[in-house]
Amino acid sequence: MPEMNLVQAIHDALAHEMRRDDDVVVLGEDVGKVGGVFRVTAGLYDEFGERRVIDTPLAEGGIVGTAIGMALYGLRPVPEIQFADFIYPAFDQLVSEAAKMRYRSGGEYTVPMVVRTPFGGGIKGGLYHSQSPEALFIHTPGLKVVCPSNPYDAKGLLLSAIRDEDPVLFFEPKRVYRAVKMDVPAGDYTVPLSEAKVVREGRDVTVVAWGAMLFEALDAAERVAGNDGVSAEVIDLRTLWPLDADTVVESVRKTGRLVVVHEAPRTCGFGAELVSTVTEKAFLHLEAPPARVTGWDTPFPYALENEYLPLASRIAPALVETARY
Amino acid sequence: MEEVPSAARRTPPGPGGADRTPGADAIPGTGEPLPLLRVLGPDGGTMRPISGEPAARRELFVAMLRARLVEERLRRLSREAWIGFVPTTFGEEAALVASVDALGDDAWIFPSPRDRGALLARGIGFEPLADQLFGNADDPQKGRQMPGVLGSRGHRIACPSAPGGTQLTHATGFAWAGKLKGAEGPVGALFGPGEATSSDFHTALNFAAVHRVPVVFVGRSVPGAEGGDGGGLARRGIAYGVSALRADGGDALAVQQVVGEAGERARAGHGPTLVELVVERLGDAALDGPADPLTRLRVHLGREGLLDDAQERELREGIKAELQSALESAAQKAAPPLASLFDDVQADRPNHLREQLAGLEAQGEDGRGRGRG
Fold this sequence. Notes:
The complex is a heterodimer.
Chain A lengths: L2 E2 L1 H15 L3 E5 L15 H5 L4 E3 L4 H14 L2 E5 L10 H8 L2 H4 L9 E6 L14 H5 L5 E3 L4 H13 L4 E6 L8 E2 L13 E4 L4 E5 L3 H16 L3 E5 L2 E3 L3 H11 L2 E8 L4 H13 L8 E5 L9 H4 L3 H12 L2
Parallel strand pairs in A: 2-3, 2-4, 5-7, 6-7, 10-11, 10-13, 13-14
Antiparallel strand pairs in A: 1-8, 6-12, 9-11
Chain B lengths: L53 H26 L13 H11 L4 E3 L5 H6 L4 H9 L31 H15 L6 E5 L7 H12 L4 E7 L12 H7 L2 E6 L3 H16 L5 E6 L14 H11 L5 H23 L19 H12 L11
Parallel strand pairs in B: 1-2, 2-3, 3-5, 4-5
Helix pairs in contact in B: 1-2, 1-9, 1-10, 2-8, 4-10, 5-6
């Protein structure tokens, strides 16, 4: 079985699906001739041509807006937003149009579109190449939000997302792009949306994470197992919305304790929703207040990036504190 | 720069006024006036040759009349609070109906929320329209949108939304997809003066021009409109590298000609066109007067022996009766079922929505709300 990193896995999913389905087209800034600033779409232009791998002007509203038009026609567009930090000009089209098209038309019109975008920090990107805006989209009914942490899940989830009938935001953790290599099947397979995965079993505290912080959570779980005798159960959400609440709640019913980790700013981050949902559904099982280890309520800094990010060094003490509450 | 098309050459400039930017109607850089096409003269005669079947011109008038009578009724229903708020517009019937007619029945149309004339041009029945006005259980849009805001897939009309101008990029993408799939197009995008100032106007025209997409942008400009026409509309198309045409939007036959020409350009692979239709929004005093687009076409039809007063009276009464019947029927139907509130957020009903619906249903009848007024 081939070994792929995250870039290769996503590339493989796109190439695979474009061969399988003529209606899949890729569009965005620098995706064609340049092959993408992270090389994710490299080679697609040569194989599929300029009609299906489209270099667009620099206008995210136009990229997403025209992709919506293509989806209404019956294509399966996969527009790319070069960095999630630049998604905001497309926010109106995503929230007002893509998210609401099926609902407002009584189901007559639908938007089977996947918006791919690198997100998250850890690459010295500063304010505008490091953001994690997922909460804004989770809060918008009509959008699905997916975030793979690893190459295997990324290919399977992207194939599921492209085949899904509704608009999907596909957040790719850029810090992981070349950092993790693993076995990824070369052929056709999918990872279902809305299924979280318990990646490490444990008894004392449930840790929920996604994206690059999934690895920090695993790292922290290892540390506290060895140093503090704390057994942490780590859950990779994989799909943020619609949420697989059952997997999380079942785990908390077992452990009685919850820690959520995300890079996005603390206030009104998705962690707040997770804590609220778990409290509603597992209140009598809780032995400690649910905790969140998150980015600070600041714009994303350049020099103090590692102090901003909720790395293992911050997660581990939170696990111990929650476990011993 | 594209050559000025023959149909638009050698006509006098359009309505001017002190409130327009000097040179607004001029080709950028040259100062030459952009021609404004007129076909119908004030006496009902034509100022230039027309083609097409006379019967088709009569049918055009009927569609415009239906659009007008629906709009009048909507305004009354809204003011009398039978239905919720509906912004209505008068004076744009030719611009809307004749445009859609000229693009041909195969063309997909992307309108703004007020462009009901497009639906009437395509022959939508009064029943689904009335059902949508009351948001009842038979509303094709399941009571989701404000009254009068609807599309219709069966009539190749996209479902509009309130954010202004977003339909322009959709139209570009839709036409682009068609081009990729070997369909000829064109696709029509309809919009008003406010939307011409939106960011989507910019991206749609830019993308359409760069990628030579077969879309016809049909924009109404209103002299003196807030945020609109002061800079001229057609001339901006030239700046984007898009063909530009102008016509008197109150002249149904002129609208047909320019939009038809733009559609032909798209079919021939010449890419997008921006059509500016200069319209006057009519207050009540101007309705049925000489500035009314219905009057202009009506006078022409009368002169050609295609419609007389008695026939017109009969038409009006017939349409009103048909509309009344549909409205009475629609007003009595029930609201959509409660569970439908949670449908169509996505293809299936996910767990969190099942739970929310269950919670609402558990409240019983008291949780139902007052329903329609």
